[in-house]
Each structure stands twice: as C-alpha cells, then as structure tokens.
Amino acid sequence: MSDQSPREIFEEITKRVNESPEAQRIIEQWVGPYDGKILQFETDAEKFHLVIADGRMELCTGEYPSPDLILRGSSQVITDVFTGRRSVGEVIRSWDLLLMGAGHEGFMLGRLIATVSLET
After folding, report:
1. Average pLDDT of the segment spanning 71-91
2. Is 57:18 a contact under the CB 8 Å cutoff?
3. Domains, the chain, ordered by start
4. Do residues 16 and 23 touch, judged by C-beta distance below 8 A?
C-alpha cells in the first residue's frame, strides 16, 4: 500500500471492511443509534470522505457539508500515517496533520483498519 495515494489506500481499506464480518460488527457498535459517521480527508491533491453506516463503508469523492471529523494534511503525511510509517501523535504534534471535529472518531477508524489489516 505504500506507493498509493491516500484515496487508493482507502479504496483498498473500504473493500476489506465491506468483506469482513468483524469489521461490520465494529461499525454497528461504532455508529450505534446514529445514522452514520462521516470522516473527511483533505490533502494537497484531493478531497474525499468516508461514509460509515449500516455496517458498511463507502468512499465518496469531494467534500461533505458537515463531517464528524476532518483530517487535513499533505498526501504524503496521510499516506505515511495510514501505512504505519509515522504515528498519528507525531504528525499532530508537528502540525503536519490537523484534526477538526470529533477527534475520537479517528480511534474507531484506527480500530477498523487494524482489524482488517490483521485479517489478511
């Protein structure tokens, strides 16, 4: 996954999540009584968002009017974080990655990614 763009990384993650019964269970637990969760990524090259609802994850192009969490950083920083080359704490402390909104939603995204990564 290391030479891919952030969107390509999340295309692969989305596919894995939607094929995993354990990931779908985590989504149901995460979303709870809400309609869903929206996490938006804003990089130097593109904007996209994840819609997490009904036990599934969908990757959508562009901005969402009111996401639960926005992750803003360069394509390289986001790629480095989601391929494990840099820690989230490190890039937040250096201001290379900005989180806006409900930052705790990022923990559940991390749990979901870890689950599908361990399944392969």
Report:
1. 93
2. yes
3. 6-119 (3.30.1050.10)
4. yes
